[in-house]
């Protein structure tokens, strides 16, 4: 099997995934998966597409992650892995689509407007 590469994005995080057949190792920015995402919740988020199709220990995944915070990076990686699995086998598309793993979450931070403290918040109004 050749290398399957895909991209996943979430907020400002970008995950570039290179997936090959192997023993189930996930390497993120030359660090182990467990040291990069220390919480179990984030680890489960990343592994979700692999567990749904039952291939947790069939692929080695090498990842380049940039931008965003931990949660955004984990969800960007989840999308990239799901896209790679669909490239590997089209039959997984219906399973992953049903669980909402192939949809890119479009929500991003709204920009700050001039004359306001935040994007929509206004300064306190004083009548006198």
Structural descriptors:
single chain, 128 residues, alpha+beta, Ribosomal Protein S5, domain 2, 5-stranded mixed beta sheet, 34% helix
Question: What's the short version?
Answer:
The protein starts with a strand and ends in a 30-residue tail after the last helix.
Report on this structure.
- By secondary structure, this protein is α+β, with helices and mostly antiparallel strands.
- It has one domain: 2-Layer Sandwich (Ribosomal Protein S5, domain 2), CATH 3.30.230.
- It contains four helices and five strands.
- Strands 1-2-5-3-4 form a five-stranded mixed beta sheet.
- Strand 1 and strand 2 form a beta hairpin.
- The mean pLDDT is 92.
Task: Give the helix/strand layout.
Blueprint: E1 4-10, E2 13-21, E3 26-28, E4 31-32, H1 33-36, H2 40-53, E5 59-66, H3 70-88, H4 92-98
Parallel strand pairs: 3-5
Antiparallel strand pairs: 1-2, 2-5, 3-4
Helix pairs in contact: 2-3
CATH fold group: Ribosomal Protein S5, domain 2
Helix/strand class:
alpha+beta
Rg (CA only): 18 Å
As laid out across the biggest beta sheet, the strand order is: 1-2-5-3-4
Query: What can be said about the biggest beta sheet?
Result: 5 strands, mixed
First-to-last CA distance: 73 Å
How many domains?
1
Task: Specify the overall morphology.
Answer: elongated
Q: What's the overall average pLDDT, rounded?
A: 92
Q: Beta-sheet strand percentage?
A: 15-25%
Helix content: 25-40%
CATH top level is Alpha Beta
Q: What low-confidence regions span 5 or more consecutive residues with pLDDT below 50?
A: none
What is the count of β-strands?
Answer: 5
Name the helix and strand elements from N-terminus to C-terminus, one letter apiece: EEEEHHEHH
- What's the architecture in CATH terms? 2-Layer Sandwich
The number of helical segments is: 4
